[in-house]
Amino acid sequence: QVQLVESGGGLVQAGGSLRLSCAASGTISTINRMGWYRQVPGKQRELVASSIRDGINDYADSAKGRFTISRDNAKKMVYLQMNSLKPEDTGVYYCNAHIGFPWSGDAFFAYWGQGTQVTVSS
């Protein structure tokens, strides 16, 4: 069984920082794309940041210049450093990973964590 477990969320005042972590576990052969998504009640889950592959990242416009995604492939982890937080950053943050298995060849499958709440107060 594959699990993605997020941590690091919490309550913070505007202008503060948080560092989210996501750990993947299970019988994993390869992790391809990894990313962070945010969901707010009444809205679609949206991309915040993604690691397309090691060293190549993409960000939502709202995150550019403030958030940094990084990964440690050996540890099967991905991180999101969130600085200069704003109230509009509030939401549940979900870790996403495209995972390959010993049996899947070159195929990858998308998995999601359970989410971690980030609340930014004004």
List the helices and strands and how they pair.
Blueprint: E1 3-7, E2 10-13, E3 18-25, E4 30-39, E5 46-53, E6 56-59, E7 67-72, E8 77-82, E9 91-100, E10 109-112, E11 116-121
Description:
With 122 residues, this protein is mainly beta. It is 0% helix and 58% strand. It has no helices and eleven strands. Strands 2, 4, 5, 6, 9, 10 and 11 form a seven-stranded mixed β-sheet that branches. A four-stranded antiparallel β-sheet has the order 1-3-8-7, with no helix packed on it. The protein starts with a strand and ends with a strand.
Low-confidence stretches: none
Summarize the helix and strand pattern as letters: EEEEEEEEEEE
Cα Rg: 14 Å
Category by helix and strand content: mainly beta
Strand content: over 45%
Query: Tally of extended strands?
Result: 11
**How much helix, percentage-wise, in residues?**
under 10%
Mean pLDDT: 95
Gross morphology: elongated
Terminal CA distance: 40 Å
Instruction: Compute the number of helices.
Output: 0
Major β-sheet profile: 7 strands, mixed
Features:
122 residues, mainly beta, 7-stranded mixed sheet, 4-stranded antiparallel sheet, single chain
Short synopsis of the structure:
With 122 residues, the chain is an all-beta fold. The chain has no helices and 11 strands.
